[in-house]
Amino acid sequence: RTVYVNGDYLPETEAKVSIFDRGFLMADAVYEVTSVLGGKLIDFQGHAARLQRSLGELEMISPVTMDELLEIHHQLIARNDLDEGGIYLQITRGAGPDRDFVWPDPEEVKGGIVLFTFAKKLTAGKSLDEGIKVVSMEDIRWGRRDIKTTQLLYPSFAKMQAKKKGAADAWLVEDGFVTEGSSNNAYIVKDGVIITRQLSTDILHGITRASILKFAAEAQMKVEERPFTIEEAQQADEAFATSATGFSQPVVEIDGVRIGDGKPGPVSRRLREIYMEEMPKTAL
Ligand code: PLP
């Protein structure tokens, strides 16, 4: 693979970053994952806008402009001949002179940036046909989940716990209510109404979530943005999760309780169909 590191396109085996990079030492970094379908970027504008917001909230400065960022994405797609999969992008606060809790002056220390592609079949698979099982886990992440940082140890830990229990993901619960999945936004459907937690600092503002809710409204589906409990989810007609690389992923079991008839539901299937039809039209 050809990857991008701080201005250079290199074979992945030659790509290097400093051991003093704050992304490595302190997870002082933000990231984005954009999906690629038919060699084109799905919702690049949404991801670029969220990236700028994440950077702004942490007083970080991007080492590249958003136009340059789009060009880098296109170069990597071309150089790796990528048809379907995604692009991972990470911007760190850079490498300070020492390991210091105080941020270095952004005028003196430039941010670090790496991007790499990954090929992956996103449009089909067992988990889409059959749905996935999830288990609940307490949400003990920090309180600014709206900023897409690389502090992913707890989500990773939660996913491992889920795996040990024979499930594919964890739905995180805070004060009795589901916040989101380990790397996706969570939804239930009851009597035709789509229910998903409202935006706040408690969850990541999913780019896929925004598109899915827009398509749901356009299709005259009812949406309620409010918190729900695991018990309510277990009694729902269907459940699903959204993310850039998972689109709309059906969930058929929560903490061992089957949702609806235990098969992917019609609402998540319909939303996925609309998403797959509409998003390539605006792909870059
Ligand atoms: N919530 C969390 C915690 C995530 O990590 C992600 C994606 O990585 C999402 C939600 C979904 O966001 P998006 O649709 O922008 O991929």
Automatic annotation (TrEMBL):
SUPFAM superfamilies: D-aminoacid aminotransferase-like PLP-dependent enzymes. Its cofactor is pyridoxal 5'-phosphate. GO terms for molecular function: branched-chain-amino-acid transaminase activity. It comes from the Bacteria. Pathway: Amino-acid biosynthesis; L-isoleucine biosynthesis; L-isoleucine from 2-oxobutanoate: step 4/4; Amino-acid biosynthesis; L-valine biosynthesis; L-valine from pyruvate: step 4/4; Amino-acid biosynthesis; L-leucine biosynthesis; L-leucine from 3-methyl-2-oxobutanoate: step 4/4. GO terms for cellular component: cytosol. GO terms for biological process: amino acid biosynthetic process; branched-chain amino acid biosynthetic process. It holds the Pfam family Aminotran_4. Acts on leucine, isoleucine and valine. This is Probable branched-chain-amino-acid aminotransferase.
